[in-house]
Amino acid sequence: MSETEEEDDTPEEETDEEAHSRFIAGVVDGEKVWGLSTEDGFLACEADEEEERAVLPFWSDAEEAREAQSAVESSEVDAIELFDFLFRWLPGMDDDDVLVGTNWTADLEGKEVEPITLQDEILDAMSDDKRTSYLDRLAREVREAGEDSPEPE
After folding, report:
1. Can you give the pTM of this predicted structure?
2. Domains of the chain, earliest start first
3. Percent of the chain with pLDDT over 70
C-alpha cells in the first residue's frame, strides 16, 4: 500500500468550524438540540477565550452528546426542542452572558459562539417555510402570553 492510500484511510480531523456548520445543519434538520445535564443543571464549562464567561455545550446528535458524556461524571443526555432552544434558551443565555459550544469533541473542546449569533445562523439556515412557521409560532406564543398576563392596576 502506498503512502497516499494510507493517508486516505485515515479519517480527517474535523475543524471547529466544520463541526459548527454540521451543528447548524443537524439541528435545523432534526429540530432538537442535545446537551448534558447534571444534578446542577446543564453542563457549563469555562470559556477558552474569555475565562470569566461560561459556555454551555450542545450537540446536534444524541450519539455525539453520549460520546462527551464520559467526560462528565453523573450526567445524562437530554434533548431540547429547537423552538425552545432558539427562543427561550439562547436569549436567556445571552442575558446571562453565557456562550454556546457547538458539537464539541468528546474532550469537551470546540467552537464557542455568542447565543444571538447562533440564533441568527440557525434561522438563516432554515427554509423560508420552516423559518416562517417558527416565527409565526413565536408571535402566537407571545400574543397568548400577553393575553394571560394580569391587567396592570
Report:
1. 0.85
2. 13-148 (3.40.1350.90)
3. 89
